[in-house]
Amino acid sequence: MRKIIKEIKKIHSISDYKKLCKKVFNKIDYVFNERLVGNIQAYYYLSRQRNKTERENDKIKIIFLCQELSLWGKIEPVFEKMKEYPEIETIVLAIPHHDMTNMDSPEHYTDVNRAYDYFGKRDDSVINARISETEWFDLKELKPDYVFYQRPYDHYLPIPYKSKNVMKYSRICYLPYGYFDSYIFECVINRNFMRYVSIFFADNMDSFSLVKKQFHQNIKSQKSILTGYPILEEVIKRSDQYVKKEKQWNKQIMWTPRWTIDDSLGGSHFFMYKDNFVEYMEENSDDYFVCRPHPLAFENFVKEGLMTLEEVNEYIKKYDECKNGEIDSSTDYLEKFLNTDVLITDISGIVIEFFLLGKPIIFCGSYAGMTESYQEVFSTFYVCNSWEEIVSILNKLALNNDSLKEKRVAVLNKIKNQHRGATNRIIDSLNNNDV
User: In this structure, are 218 and 98 located in the same domain?
Assistant: First the structure.
């Protein structure tokens, strides 16, 4: 009401009045169609899925949507483990990337389907979602029992694969693509998407409780299950198996800047430190430097007018021309983590993965909206508010002066036990029809 009153005060002409009316009616239309009608549809189809007494397939057919390869590692342990079960059939539906620089065009997808190219070389059970420029594979034909989504954002997906369409014939499953350690990550539990989800596999107690509250109106058809995070279980396993290689460099330093400068979403220190990082890399030729921006960072910086495409390419070129550095965009970033000695980072859902390796973390700025359970983890970070502070900590660590090591190890040993068995808990809940 206050917003409407403010708008009314701005009216000085018939044109202003028409603009206000349009805003009000658009809002009413959104509330009615997107919220009310969407909630009714969700309740109806979720109930219908729950009341199914017989499967349409001999095996449990589970589809994994893959559009962003950088996020595949979050669910890959579950996908690979399911292959060991003869009663389960798994299929990957590979969807081309949606170009953020052309968000105004809802059907703008890259011509190259990187996900299909990746899986086509290693897995037979993959389907190219794109049949032609105007035609998409009909997922409904597969009669899936469950469909796993990578992200809770329908606006990146082609219309046939949006959750409100898929939930009409299959149960939707969702495992967060980022560890829930801050309430700014409620975006990974998007309400508009979550109303269509049948099963949410919670990475920790915070996300479990939050989603359980969201599901309270449809509790019989929607389940929030506390399973732990499969990627953390994978980190633990690979860390235990890791054999240190003979180092070419004195140490490896990795920087993972965030994708947005919006402080309400955690903010990014990329523009504050991007030149410092390059200069430090050039001055310390005995060390190796990895810059791994969020997968959407450069696209978003261009979209927001913070950088031009030419400036992005010029920045990447600086690393290409330097023998002791790289811009990393590899699918398997865990391999980079294992070889990294120190992580410099903004707020990020992957920090917890590096933390479980027991290595020092230099955190830039403050951790906005941190959950209570994550405060113990955060207390083991070296928090810096300037480049000079970052260099000071790096110098101390180079002299093996790691004052937070003992505390870090104690905290990570507690967390490890919460995630061991996460993959099996997810599969067992589906296989035993507990949901």
Answer: yes
Integer Cα distance of 297 and 312 in angstroms: 10
CA-to-CA dists, residue 256 to 110, 149, 152, 175, 392, angstroms: 25, 24, 22, 22, 19
**Residues 398, 357 share a domain:** yes
304: phi then psi, degrees, rounded to nearest 5: -85, 0
State pLDDT tens for residues 49-105: 777 766 777 899 999 999 999 899 999 999 999 999 999 999 999 999 887 665 555
The distance from CA 170 to its chain's CA centroid, rounded to whole angstroms, is 23
The token pair at 187 is 């975006």
Handedness of CA 113, 114, 118, 119 (dihedral sign): negative
0.70 cut: is pTM over it?
A: yes
Backbone angles phi, psi at 142, to 5 degrees: -75, -15
pLDDT of residue 263: 84
- CA-to-CA distance for 105 and 59, rounded, in angstroms? 39
212 lies in the same domain as 242: no
Q: What are 372-402's pLDDT values in tens digits?
A: 888 999 999 999 999 999 999 999 999 999 9
Q: Which helix (H) or strand (E) holds 149?
A: strand 146-149
Residue 110 identity: T
Residues 367, 126: Cα–Cα separation, whole Å: 39
At 253, the pLDDT band (50, 70, 90 cuts) reads very high
Do 407 and 61 touch, CB atoms closer than 8 A? no
Say whether both 71 and 100 belong to one domain: yes
